[in-house]
Write a structure and sequence with these properties.
2 domains, alpha+beta, 297 residues, twelve-stranded antiparallel beta sheet
Length: 297
């Protein structure tokens, strides 16, 4: 008696088409999820960069401006979207009273403590604290100078190599105190004491400027060159207003007591908005900074 063997039935054309349709639907869904995830990631990255840029401006600019003493000429030029200042960069302490009486003075300074992102170099501009008559505070001021030479040295009574001999051309003269008093500085030994602070500074400009990519940035201009620091921002995305001690707007650099800063940035690339259109979101921050040696408002 013959044996019946059950054979395998192959997939029909209809079943194959159904499988392909289902595979296409699933693949399209997976692709859409991946695209949406990529779009969300890009949008969040752009927004994070935007917020970090604006916050960076609110950290860098106030930190620079708080060091300024407008009555001592630290604001060299100012405008609505540009400012040039004496930016303080070093702080050192003299460990011996310099011998004065000549245009150039050799000042021994301590290697520690020394506060700066870099050491003094030849050509740096400095301010040396002028004690003057020790019996009165009415002549205390700062003597400007320029470093012409630097050598290793030893502080009196200290360890070997714990000092640096900085030779600087100092410019003594008359200065006007914040209260209007004219102070006389004399190039005489004993007028600058051991322990006198020495401040190093450089001229720095912060300015709104358009770059080659057609975007606007807040530029930093110093001895190292010109470079974009913060951005991109709106074409009017960096604005400053200047106020005196009576909270009145002023355009006189010597009377500035506080500076109002406003920064408006936007994302570098367009991102998908909630309504489905492409756009560049904008974020902004505003603050006000009181300057050093000025009465607060």
């Amino acid at each position: 008696m013959p044996t019946l063997v059950a054979g395998r039935r192959g997939m029909t054309l209809v079943e194959l088409l159904v499988a392909l349709v289902l595979l296409g639907i699933v693949s399209a869904g997976i692709y859409r999820v991946l695209v949406n995830n990529q779009r969300i990631y890009q949008a969040q990255t752009q927004r994070i960069d935007l917020q970090q840029n604006v916050r960076a401006a609110m950290n860098i600019l106030p930190a620079e401006f708080r060091e300024l003493a407008a009555t001592e000429g630290d604001i060299l030029a100012m405008g609505a979207n540009s400012i040039t200042i004496r930016a303080m960069r070093q702080l050192a302490i003299a460990c011996a009273a310099p011998v004065l009486g000549l245009p150039a003075a050799a000042i021994m300074i301590r290697t520690q403590p020394f506060f700066s992102t870099r050491d003094f170099v030849v050509g740096d501009r400095i301010f040396v604290y002028y004690e003057g008559d020790q019996a009165t505070r009415n002549d205390d001021s700062w003597v400007p100078g320029t470093i012409t030479a630097i050598a290793n040295g030893d502080c009196p009574g200290g360890a070997v190599g714990d000092g640096r001999l900085v030779t600087a051309t100092l410019t003594f003269g008359t200065v006007t105190a914040p209260n209007g008093t004219v102070l006389n500085q004399f190039n005489q030994t004993g007028r600058i004491q051991s322990g006198a602070p020495i401040r190093g500074w450089e001229p720095v400009t912060y300015r709104l400027q358009q770059a080659a990519d057609a975007n606007w940035y807040i530029y930093l201009i110093d001895a190292s060159g010109t470079q974009p620091l913060i951005g991109p921002v709106l074409p009017n995305g960096f604005q400053m207003a200047f106020f005196d001690s009576t909270n009145t707007a002023t355009n006189n650099p010597a009377l500035v007591a506080s500076i109002q800063i406003m920064v408006q940035g936007h994302t570098l690339q367009p991102i998908r908005q909630m309504d489905g259109t492409l756009g560049q979101p904008v974020d902004s921050m505003q603050t006000r900074v009181a300057l050093r040696n000025n009465r607060r408002f």
